[in-house]
Each structure stands twice: as structure tokens, then as C-alpha cells.
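Fold description:
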Amino acid sequence: MRGKSPFGGSKLTALAVAVILAAAGAIVNWLQPSEPEGRRSPPSGQTRPAPSAQNRAGPALAGGIPQGSYTLTGAIVNVADGDTVTLRAPDGQRKIRMDSIDAPEEGHGADQPGQPYAEASRKHLADLVAGKTLTAQCYEKDQYGRDVCALILEDGRSANRAQVEAGYAWAYTARQGDYLRDKAMPDLQRQAKAAGRGLWAQQGAMQPWKWRYDCWRQRQCGG
């Protein structure tokens, strides 16, 4: 007579099933691809870090000023002309081309003479912003690497609008308004022109974009 197994038949079967299930689970876990580190969801109860405040759009703006896709905050350390300034941001100096306006051109040598009221426009802007810590609502970079922005004054007004309102810049309506993000500008220009403010005190004021083409490129600098 054959000796009796030290393990009961039912116990041996249960043990075999447990071993098979454990092996199958290990194989499944090994075959399942792990989620890339950069795409993993944060643990429960945690949130992803907020983006840098320097790149976050600012709060809603008064007066319908278009909100930027990012902001820059810092001291205005240079005013180059009536629509271009340098802002000292935490990551370095940034040249800002003021959005939706075009100011009279400063001269750049004999071949590129300046327009009337160019220096008056620069001085008016300097009085508004020079040396002050301001926030710029920025929309994009232009082909020269400048940040295209609305420069917000301490009282919440737009320095861009203030330039047009005072008659020291044009609403930038060239190319059928491709550069005109702030739709308030044309009406501000009409008011300044009607009141004869700034450059509108002269007869035959020429748009800066027309000056750059007619005078600088075509050498036709007449009124």
C-alpha cells in the first residue's frame, strides 16, 4: 500500500493556485508601462506648483485696456522715444515697445531725419514713467525681440493711451489696424486732434509709419 502524502489533497491544490495567482500578478505589473515622470498626477491633496508670477496674466484692467498674456514689473530706467522704454525686470532689462501707438520718429543720422514733436513726445512719456516702478501688460514679442505691452501707470491708467490723448502719439492704424489692439485709441486721437493738442498744433502732421517709408526709404521728406 502506497504511503499517505504528508499534505492533504485540498491543501496542496490551494497552495498551487495561490502560487499561480501571485506569479500572474507579478507578470502583469512587470508588463504595464510606467507613466512618464513629467506627466504623473500629483498625490491626492496636492496641486501642481503655480506658474511664475512674472509670466502670469494680471488681474482684469480698468477702462477696457486689453489684458496681457504675461506681465513684467520693474523700474523704467530709460525712455528712448515716445513709444519705447526699458524696464528693469528681476531677470534683467527688457525693452518695451508700447502697444497700439506710434510716436513721432527721433532722428538717426542724416539719412533718417527725425519728425517734428519727436523730442516733445519722448519728454512727455518720460514725465509719466521715468524712474517709476510699473507693471506692463504684455502681449507678444516683436521681430526685434522687444516686448509689446501696455504700460500701466500707478493710478491704473495706460501710458499708451495718455500719449495719444495728449497728442504725442498716433493710434497705430497702419496695415488696416493689424497693430491696433486697444480699440480706444482712434477716438482718443480724434479728441486730441480736435483740441489741437501736441503734434496736432502743426499743419500736415505725418504718420510715423508713412514718414519711415516716404522720408527714410524714398528720401521724400516734405510735409
Summary: Confidence is low (pLDDT under 50) at residues 1-8, 26-53. The longest strand covers residues 70-81. Residues 16 and 135 are 72 Å apart (CA to CA).
